[in-house]
From TrEMBL:
Claim: Metal-binding is one of the keywords in the record: no
Protein name: C40 family peptidase
InterPro entries referenced in this protein's UniProt entry, alphabetically: NLP_P60_dom, Papain-like_cys_pep_sf, PG_Endopeptidase_C40, TAT_signal
Keywords: Hydrolase, Protease, Signal, Thiol protease
Organism: Streptacidiphilus cavernicola
Amino acid sequence: MPRAPRAPRRGSLLLATALAFLAAALPGAPRAAADDPSPAAPSATAPSAPSAPSAADVRAAQDNATRRAAEVAAVEAQLAAAQQAEQNLDIQAEQSVEAYNGARVRQQQAEADSAQAATEAATAAVRRETARQAAAALAVAQYRTGLPPALGAVQGLMRVQDLHSAELQEEALQAVQLQAASVAAAAADTAAAAATASAAAARAATAAEQAAAVVRQAAAKVQAELAAQHTEVARIAAQRGALLARLAAAQQVSVALATQRQQALAAAAAKAAAEAAAAAARQSADAAPSGTGTPYRAGDASAAVAFARAQLGLPYVWGGAGPDVFDCSGLTMRAWQHAGVSLPHFAADQYASSTPLSYHQLRPGDLVFWSHDGSPQDIYHVAIYLGGDQMIEAPRTGDVVKVASLWIMGTPDFYARPRPSGA
């Protein structure tokens, strides 16, 4: 870790003083009168002067400071590695949460399809039974009268006109019988197909439910790993604080000063990264087509932003969609629902349901997205743009809904504006 320039060590001066003292005290060493400022030599009973630090003392102090600095450097490396692991787990957690949200959307759709298929199967079964009963009634009527009910009205006419009734009645009877059989068979086929579709839909709903459960377990596992990593980072940070205190004591500087310096270095690095990300975003946006994109209806964006602001400070809980807890896509879904626009509880689907924008087209209320591999299908985080490179987000477990820099996670991968319902 780079360190700020410091004043020359006092050890060199102390070492020179110690050597001079030892040289003057050695037996047989010549001593000029001018070297003794006192008018007379000290008496045997005078108190002895305090001994100067030895070269060994000086070297020990220097070695101690060096050891403390090495300890701090080592724990700084451990802390950086732990924080990087925490960041990676945080991304994995967001991905798993959004995967669970997507699985839940698919499960809900499969359940709705299953319910619809079951309703259609029940209706088809009723029609099949109705057709069966009608065919049975036709057979009874034929047995009683020799003609089906449909021909009963023309029976007298046929007798009066004497139209070779035997053949004509036989042909008509066969036609009606065939029609009745066809209706009954079609109804049976429809009912069978509906029952098959209903069973398939029910199996799909069960599979979707099982898939959602698997994804939920995976998300819970990553969340547990992330919580453990939070604890590890806190432990190493506490160890770092203790070592900084020892280093500060060894270097005769305050712990506060050492901590402030570390914080200043971290802040400078973060600022440089944010500036680089902003510059990259502006450069890529300059090449995008100009325009304002799809306009909002009056009040849409402001209503979404107002709702999001009202949730500031509420805790993040994965799968949360209000009213007291939210995850990232749950917050944006409810915010735009408050504005009259329906969005799914799944960040990738929210992007698919919106109009893509460039950075320069962003307006308050628009959505910003991050993807693990740069594809829309792998979007794992979404937030609401406020303007001025600020956003409102539900970031991660252990955090709350808050305002943050647009560049806090690096340059967003996608920008989009929710389309009004029905557009």
